[in-house]
Amino acid sequence: MMKGGMGNLMKQAQMMQANMQKAQDELGLIDVEGLASNGLVKIAISCKHQVKKISIDPSVMNDHEMLEDLLIVAFKDALQKIEQTTNAKMGNMMPPGMKLPF
Where does the UniProt entry say this protein principally localizes (predicted)? Predict the structure, then answer.
């Protein structure tokens, strides 16, 4: 009887692993957009952290320091959105209190 329980547990673990892999693959297809200063700087990044596009409004090109700050803000916004999207997609697969490793 114990052996059947262990086999069932292993089967459940394999199914969970397959579901997590599928969710990770799907996340690679999702892009988010980080914004700074009402869209003067936009950064599109996949949920697998691949930068897809950076758009910079010409009005901020003359102020080097401000542009640097806006790029940081846009990246942080995109990374926060990636974390939210990832948690929404995969959070229900993890036991309560356990954080995702990525």
Answer: cytoplasm
